[in-house]
Amino acid sequence: MVVLAASIVSKTGKPLVSRQYMEMSRIRIEGLLAAFPKLVGTGKQHTYVETENVRYIYQPMEGLYLLLITNKQSNILEDLETLRLLSKLVPEFSQNLEEDSVAAKAFELIFAFDEVISLGHKENITVQQVKQNCEMESHEEKLHKLIIQSKINDTKDIMKKKVADIEKSKMEQKKIGLTSALSGFGSKAASSIMQELEGTQGYRIDPAPVAISKPSASTARGPSKGMQLGKAKKANDFLETLAKEGEVVELDVPKPTGGVAAVTANIATDPVSLGIEEKVSVSLNKQGGVENLEVQGTMSLVVNSDEDAFIRIAVAGGPNKNFQFKTHPNIDKNLYGSSNILGLKDPSRPFPTGSELGILKWRFQSKEENLVPLSINCWPSVSGGESYVNIEYESTSNFDLQNVQIMIPLPASGHAPTVNQVDGEWRYDSRRSALIWTIELIDDTNRNGSLEFVTSAADAEAFYPVEVTFSSNRTFCDINITGVEHTQKGGPVKFALKKSLETAEYNVV
Prior knowledge:
Blueprint: E1 3-10, E2 15-20, H1 26-39, E3 48-50, E4 54-61, E5 64-71, H2 76-93, H3 99-104, H4 106-116, E6 117-118, E7 121-122, H5 127-134, H6 139-182, H7 187-201, H8 217-221, H9 231-244, E8 272-284, E9 290-303, E10 311-317, E11 324-327, H10 333-339, E12 341-342, E13 357-366, E14 374-383, E15 386-395, E16 401-409, E17 418-422, E18 425-429, E19 434-442, E20 448-456, E21 466-472, E22 479-486, E23 495-508
Parallel strand pairs: 8-23
Antiparallel strand pairs: 1-2, 1-5, 3-4, 4-5, 6-7, 8-9, 9-13, 10-12, 10-22, 11-13, 14-15, 15-20, 16-19, 16-21, 17-20, 18-19, 21-23
């Protein structure tokens, strides 16, 4: 038995975790995983499919697939036993079988997979042994961490003591300055004021001797530059270090003196910030058809001040046919369903401040070609020991796309292709053995474009999958914010809104 790779993928073939046990390029493993969803049939009892070169053995896990890729000569019974063992391990390390949770536990899952499979062969091990090996504790490591933590605590104690010394020094300086100021009132007035302060403030002021002399000629002409000390700057640097470590300190900011321009940067922030973000996943086939188009959107809210946390948001939108919407559990669903207003179930409670909160989510899925924002067609052909590749894109008028990148895998020849014609810019990525075609902006001036290049002869499959990334300021869902209202004070609340569309996964396979 030889296991080529163990992976966890989404229903659309998006790889979340993949561990290769035989040497293969990233392009090849991504191509194998991207082709898997198209091979899986519906209504079939068996959980394996075969291609010309490899065998896929899989097990559905809620919205994901646990997948083994093996060669066709491997023992399928042993492969199924390996798959069953891995299926027991995955819930042990990722209790929530969703994409985000599995991706967050990627390294733990890879370490667990390595305990089960070594160089493509299954190890004689149980689930409990895998957990014990992955949770192995080291006494030396614990001791080292305790020593480090002890040093950190000692350093913090020393810094706190130094802060106290600095504060004490400041108080002494203030006393001396107050005494000097009082001396201008005369000795009797100063003595009276100091006695009154000692009685009301609870501390004693020792008057310092003040020498009074006639002003000299140089003094009459104007102030002279005196000696400047650097202790204040050093003290501030030290206090800034404490502040970075979480200590509450008060920094002394020197006031600007005459002749020095003081510049103050006032950053105006809106009380409420709203974001509408969508991620689109598209799978196109080589003939230009749509295998799948899926859009997942989120409306997020950030309240920047406590006094503006008692709010509700008025939403406006188009028909949005076939879109599925879901509100946050604390949002009043009935209010949103009847009035398109997003507010808390308990209006007396405020929204949390300072943190981002997703208040509305939506999902859309389709196979209609006219909805795809960017279509890609690739035409490879072999002639005289070379491959001639023509690639063209076509964009719909619904979206203006920014930072478009189209990555075409190349045969592992080790040298850059010859580009005969390109709309935009291109570069050769030798590490990934790929040509990256870049278009900064696609709008009404360039809805169509093409690229033509020549490289060493290879099969047409070598130029797939083509990967696409882009962003846009327009979203699939016709949704907008018409206003934010304060639920206690009444009246509108100023807000900022940002809309964005990004590619989560966009392939031509």
